[in-house]
Amino acid sequence: MQRLNLLSYNVQAGIYSRQYSDYLTNSWKHVLPHPERLVNLARIAQVLRQFDLVGLQEVDAGSLRSSYIDQIQYLARQGGFPHWYRQVNRNLGPFAQHSNGLLSRLRPVHITEHRLPGLPGRGAVSAEYPLSNGEHLAVAIVHLALGWRARRRQLDYLARLADKHPYLVMMGDFNCGCDSKGLRNMLRNAQMRGMDCELKTFPSWRPRHNLDHILISRPLKLVSARVIDYALSDHLPLSMVVELPDGLRFAESFQTTHASVSGAA
């Protein structure tokens, strides 16, 4: 009741990538359905079962390309997560539902969607979990822009969000790594840590960039962090074990059975 086993994973809508040329040859899979997608998602779900809380990026909430399957709900059921949430950031109607997803074995008491600065289509979703001292642990799942100008504004927004939560985990695809001045400024201003230049996640078949991060506020303890060599997307999944400060516990027990799944659009 004091540790949390976390995973952040950009699943590329269930598209299996093996090399750079797949971006061209598999481009049609971003628009049209393909039977390999569900097989790939089932394999991804087997990895997710090991974790207490999972943040997903580039997941489809149910459209033509996903055969109208809500991939967040599907992964929640296959992974045995009793609580899940979808945040649709770019709604292209029946053609695509670009989303962030939360899968959790703990019941969040409050969930907030954040529309990040810049062009529409980028967002963050934060969930709050009660602690034994009456405070809350906030977990934010983010997917930032490709352009550095928009990303800098989004990092400033996340720094302000961190000011509101003394106990905070922020994870996702930041689309920038150790060489990002904006990310380093955000870490310093928000008094967060966890960026490790050796935890390279992209591209999955030859990881050279650390675009994915799990960042934690200073009071939390970083027990371990690793990249999982499970190349099913164009990103590798990133995991971290965090521990609450001494004397703190989660106010609710973890649920590890296939309970009824709850979610919201």
From TrEMBL:
UniProt keyword terms in alphabetical order:
Endonuclease, Exonuclease, Hydrolase, Nuclease
Give a Gene Ontology cellular component term annotated to this protein.
Answer: membrane
Set out the biological process GO terms recorded for this chain's protein: GPI anchor biosynthetic process
Coiled-coil annotated spans: none
Q: Which SUPFAM superfamilies match?
A: DNase I-like
Output one GO MF annotation. exonuclease activity
Top-rank taxon? Bacteria
Q: Name the PANTHER family on file.
A: CALCOFLUOR WHITE HYPERSENSITIVE PROTEIN PRECURSOR (PTHR14859), ENDONUCLEASE_EXONUCLEASE_PHOSPHATASE DOMAIN-CONTAINING PROTEIN (PTHR14859:SF15)
| Species | Imhoffiella purpurea
Q: What is this protein called?
A: Endonuclease/exonuclease/phosphatase family protein
Ranges of residues in domain Endonuclease/exonuclease/phosphatase = 7-235
Q: Does the keyword Hydrolase apply?
A: yes
